[in-house]
Fold each of these.
Amino acid sequence: MAKTKTEESDKRTPIKLRPIIRKHAGKITEPWNIMENLLADCEVFAPIKHAHIKLYWQKDWKADADNIAVGAQVCKASELDRNQVEEWGGVTPDIFIKLAETHWPAFKEIDRERFIFHELCHIKVAMDSNGKQKLDAKDRPLWRIGKHPITTFPAEIERYGIDAVLGANDKMLEVIRFSDRPMEKVFDEAEKSGMTVSAEVVLTADSWRNYLLAHLGCSARVSKALETAGLKTLGELTNFQAKHGDFWIKDIKGLGATGSEELTNRLESFWTEHPEYCQAQSEEK
């Protein structure tokens, strides 16, 4: 028996993704209104206000194997997305946010706002080594999707408490910072306890010479130039300065004017931030 047209149409692949129109019957639609109000009212979103964000409805989101249900999702526009829109004469998209169309009506108003707020939190400015937003060859601003700073499991919260879980990332960053700069921990703990620490107990006049240049926080370009020149510590850099005279910085290939200025500023900041080394020197003289 031949299939009817209705039966054939029923087997067509359903469309699960469609754009959310911004205006309907002269009014801004709810998802767009929520997003635009958040961007206007929340200071945390000031860096992304000029991003071109497009909203889409996504149908039939289901829970995964871990029983995690997605209520919204964010992603960057691809190069193909951008080029196609530009070819058609539209506004170049930067970011897409997908919302659960099937379940949206069942959410409370505060939950709808929270879903969009959460996805906006993921959007970050892509920065270069000079702290400026990256641009592509067409001078289009670049963005990145940030990770969750807090990731946990219900059992972890139940065992250790919400405060411990929320502070886990900060504790990890502190451990990393002190592992890179062990002396910083001594002075930091002393400051917190209201005590004073005598620098000469743990430092000698030449301790600063072993300080790694990698810990100055220089950009990748400056760090590469120092590495290529064979300079790994402050002591090696000081010897290089003495050997090459007043114009030593020009003898480090690959720095350039911007890199030279950056390195000079980093060195000045180092001595300002680490008075313990200066104190150790003066007390041994």
Amino acid sequence: MRTAAHRVRLIASAALLATALSTGAAATAAPHMPAPAAAPVSATAAAPTAAAAAAQASWPTVKSGQRGVDVTTVQLLLTARGHAVKADGVYGTGTVAKVKAFQKTQHLPTDGIVGPQTWTRLVTTLKPGTKGTAVTALQHQLTANGHTVKTDGVYGPATTTKVKAFQTAHRLTADGIAGTNTWAALVRGGGSGGGGGTPGGGAKLSDAQAAAKLKAAGISRVSSGNCTDRNRKNCTSLEGIRVGTVDGVIALKKKSGCKITVTGGTETNHAGGTYSHWNGYKVDISRTSCVTSYIQGHATKHHKRGDGAWVWRVTSGGKTVVDYADERWANHWDITYY
């Protein structure tokens, strides 16, 4: 006769056997069952940061036929990436071929045009102590943006100081490291030069001081009245123009490689307001095909003014840095440096 204890052992054994059989059946069936759905990726992980998205959207387009410091930058960065090409600032057939070769290695469309996708693969984060052609490219950009530094390919204290000054002026983290956002702001160009973040560069210049700076940069000035009196509407005066405005025009010339002619400054007969000609924030330059091509390739078409002029805008850190208003009827670009 089975004891109560024996019956308990039998019941426990049966339970264990049932569990084992159930587990085995599940294991056998598992390979034929659909895989469980992956956990959804959070919006933060799936999408790039706001800063990265802004940088992606703000890169200029550099392509065949263009000239200037951005072309030189592309050429130096190509060399740094193992696609050596002469850094002559001219986007010719040799540069097109090297860009296509680089794009192929990066699995990008091989169109020979340096747009946002190619820029983000081409630039590299540079830190103090780095050496090479990528540093030379950075130094060219700093100088073109009004932060002059020796182009020796060495990321030393002087370059670090200039990077920090540029970052401060463009409301970026002033860590002295040239990362993606700093590169994007550099190649967009048109900033306030050495203004240190103060709108329009802060300090004002006399007509003679401004004229001397522009002349040294190879920039001319013309007026219908052949005069510089700011109280006469047919003159082109630079009296009271802000340092950042002058530096911005100089940077535009260096980066575009275009001939720049100033046709309007701080003289009377312009529209009023805080960011006005009279207050030194604005300047007019001749509307040449070279200048127009550069502006439309480096700024974003933003809005149409009440007078019908389309405004092309450059931003940095979510702030407006430069507005280019296309006053076609007057054959000039009306530029505001904030």
